[in-house]
Specification:
57 residues; 21% helix; flat; ligase; Gln_synth_gly_rich_site; Gln_synth_cat_dom; nucleotide-binding; EC 6.3.1.2
């Protein structure tokens, strides 16, 4: 989990359809999915758009 309530970060490799799968899973679980990096106003530690890079190929 992250600092913001209910926020999670998933790191996956390039995968076609991952957004679709996340939408279906959360739909079945009855929860809301947002891909917004800052879904709640305020200065939340750890909440923001950041990019991870790998040095391995």
């Amino acid at each position: 989990g992250e600092v913001m309530p209910g926020q999670w970060e998933f790191q996956v490799g390039h995968s076609v359809g991952i957004e679709y799968l996340l939408e279906r899973i959360t739909e079945q679980a009855g929860v809301v999915l947002t891909l917004d990096p800052k879904p709640i106003e305020g200065d939340w530690n750890g909440a923001g758009c950041h990019t991870n890079y790998s040095t391995k190929s």
